[in-house]
Amino acid sequence: MTDLEVRKIDFGFDETIPFQWLPSHPKFGLMADVISIIAIAFEKFIVASTRRAIPLIQDPQVVAEAEAFLRQEAQHAKNHRKHVAALVSQYPGLEQTVDAAVASFDRLLETEPLEFQLAYTADLEATFTPIFKVMLDHEDTLFRPGDERVASLFLWHFCEEVEHRSSALIIFDAVVGNRWYRTRATRKVFRHVMRLYRDILAGFDEHVPEQDRRAEYRHVSPDGVRREEVLARLPIPASWRTRLGMFPPSAFAPASNREMLTLVYRLLLSQVPHHRPAKEPLPVFADTWFRAYRSGCDVTRFYTSTAG
Where are the domains of the chain? Predict the structure, then answer.
């Protein structure tokens, strides 16, 4: 049977939720807001494609894994919808951005075969553990100083993504069973998700005033992140960075050069046919979060409930 636990947690969000929930690291905060919108669309896609896949799975243990996986993802989508609804109530134009993201994944459900849908999920989910490890390894800088309600949402989501890191690949193997197909799909998968990521950032620039964002598309786009992380780590005078239009902190400023190189390596490794998510190095914080949940702490206010 699966080891996954479906935690039904209700996060409370209202019009007091700030768009820029992490003023100390606004580029990371803006990136996380993009993730919140992608989560709504992608997790709806996961639930729909996994439900189609389950009748094709012969192994009852894999069926149990798939059912727990889609139920966890449904919980993520539910709470991110609450977060994004609170933002849309303040910036109504964002509804267009959300609708476009959902429609983008709906088109994949309508036009792509189930094999590709499962490969898409397995490819993207494989990147989450190395990415979220870097983030959670620096939660004291990238989450704790921010609005506790939003920070707690991402802490919960990212820890559960680490927990079910193998699920998408288990389902893919049971239905498709061709690891080379997954690897061949990589370029198409990431072309789609990066286009969506850019479109959401563009929607933020269009619909949210700069004083509320405190960062822009150019800072957090894929090209912008690469540029800023390199500039931030080169031994050059701060005045040169300013002339080049880079103002610290960069999105991943707390991470060391070694951590960032390891991240790149593990992202590449995540797409090769022999990849095994179960062997990925895990963030220590995930165990801290799971212990807090098991002890009955209010994880919707993680830092307050675990203080002292």
Answer: 26-215+267-305
- Residue 150 and residue 134: Cα distance in Å, rounded? 18
Say what percent of the chain tops pLDDT 70. 99
Task: State pLDDT tens for residues 108-136.
Answer: 999 999 999 999 999 999 999 999 999 99
Q: Spell out the SS3 assignment of 169-228.
A: HHHHHHHCCCHHHHHHHHHHHHHHHHHHHHHHHHHHHHHCCHHHHCCCHHHHCHHHHHHH
Q: What DSSP letter does each residue of 233-266 carry, written as one string? A: HSS--HHHHHHTT--SPPTTTTS-HHHHHHHHHH
User: CB-based contacts of 78: which residues, under 8 Å, 6+ apart?
Assistant: none
Residue in this structure with the two tokens 């947690």, named with its chain if needed: 9
| Residue-by-residue DSSP string for 283-300 | -HHHHHHHHHHHTT--GG
